[in-house]
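Cross-check.
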Amino acid sequence: GVVGPCGAGKSMLVAALRQRGVRAREVAQEHSYIPHMWLRVTRPDLLIYLDVSREVAERRLRRSLPGEWWAEIGNRLAHARAHADLVVDTDLLTEQEVVRQVLEFLRRS
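Predicted model, tokenized:
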């Protein structure tokens, strides 16, 4: 399972993993008020949390993200982040670097 805020790279990572034969699923936890929805919906073997700062997310999404909304997204994702097997801060990484880090983690797991 892959979770994280909007603009973190979840869709890109899931697509890249699937292209390599890895069963991966994006979990839209940021849209749910149920803290453990990620667990109920997917029951993932591993949970990967992609993190991103609001500033970088705004640049990637090419839109403004209100502060209160961003804080709420963080609250909705807190349970998943606390239970993640891997947390990757994507702010300074290219898409290829994110994929490489995740694949290395999966090989070790």
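The first helix runs from residue 10 to 19. Strands lie at 2-3, 48-51, 86-89. Passed to J.P. for a second look.
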